[in-house]
């Protein structure tokens, strides 16, 4: 697995001449289910970080949500308006998640990745997490050898980009050495991230575990209740199970394994 942050434009394993499609997988709440409640555990830690800065409960809740909705990630608001160390933030928040207790490798998911026809598609991860968390999840799920590159948010960079900003998707294309948006196939649990990808001409699948809850910006959200989820108006596919990728993008899977 190669590493590709938003700040080191290199390491596209196959270079600009690679003509294959790319399947981009989000990591959190996509490669594992929201039922793990990892987003809740992340939200709790971020809230605690605000409290440790000296904020009162209510103020912490308000600011956490405001930064998330304004900047896409609470951390970006924190670095913009407060003197905090983003690496320390990552260590205290994502770094202390008991992931080994919450997620396990899945033979079915591993097989899904193995059944992607690599003569037709490369497989990359595209996450808003920092590299240590991204790598840790992929290692626990035993998917590291199935992912050729990881585009992650580089918390060490001032003003780093993140989904759903168009810039972040453009950076991802540069990292992977691909210019044709139509060759991009993107899977993410976040509707705004999907809509942004669709706008850029990517093929997208919204992994939507309707009925479950997730925490975004410190607030509980009912999955599947956001705009466009019931009736997609921009061509994005909606899937409830990653296995459905075998059908909606059947041309990217080995023919013997299509279901
Ligand atoms: Mg996600």
UniProtKB/TrEMBL annotation:
Pfam hit, one: Hydrolase
GO molecular function, one term: nucleotidase activity
Upper classification of the organism: Eukaryota, Fungi, Dikarya, Basidiomycota, Agaricomycotina
BP-aspect Gene Ontology terms: nucleotide catabolic process; pyrimidine nucleobase metabolic process
InterPro entries for the chain: HAD-like_sf, HAD-SF_hydro_IA, HAD_sf, Pyr-5-nucltdase, SSM1_domain
Protein name per UniProt: Pyrimidine 5-nucleotidase
Domain of life of the native organism: Eukaryota
Annotated source species: Pterulicium gracile
Signal peptide: none
Entries under SUPFAM superfamilies matching the protein: HAD-like
């Amino acid at each position: 697995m190669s590493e590709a942050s938003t700040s080191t434009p290199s390491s596209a394993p196959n270079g600009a001449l690679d003509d294959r499609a790319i399947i981009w997988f989000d990591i959190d709440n996509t490669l594992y289910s929201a039922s793990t409640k990892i987003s809740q555990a992340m939200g709790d830690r971020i809230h605690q970080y605000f409290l440790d800065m000296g904020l009162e409960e209510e103020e912490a809740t308000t600011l956490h949500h405001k930064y998330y909705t304004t900047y896409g990630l609470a951390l970006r608001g924190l670095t913009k308006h407060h003197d905090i160390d983003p690496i320390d933030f990552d260590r205290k928040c994502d770094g202390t998640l008991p992931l080994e207790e919450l997620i396990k490798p899945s033979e079915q998911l591993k097989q899904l990745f193995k059944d992607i026809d690599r003569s037709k598609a490369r497989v990359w991860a595209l996450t808003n997490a920092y590299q240590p968390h991204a790598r840790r999840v992929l290692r626990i799920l035993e998917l590291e050898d199935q992912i050729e590159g990881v585009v992650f948010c580089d918390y060490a960079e001032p003003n780093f980009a993140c989904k759903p900003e168009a810039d972040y998707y453009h950076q991802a294309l540069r990292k992977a050495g691909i210019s044709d948006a139509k060759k991009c196939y993107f899977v993410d649990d976040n509707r705004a991230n999907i809509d942004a990808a669709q706008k850029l001409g990517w093929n997208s699948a919204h992994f939507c575990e309707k009925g479950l809850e997730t925490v975004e910006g410190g607030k509980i959200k009912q999955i599947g209740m956001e705009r466009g989820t019931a009736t997609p108006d921009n061509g994005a596919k909606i899937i409830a199970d990653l296995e459905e990728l075998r059908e909606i993008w059947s041309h990217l899977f080995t023919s013997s394994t299509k279901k």
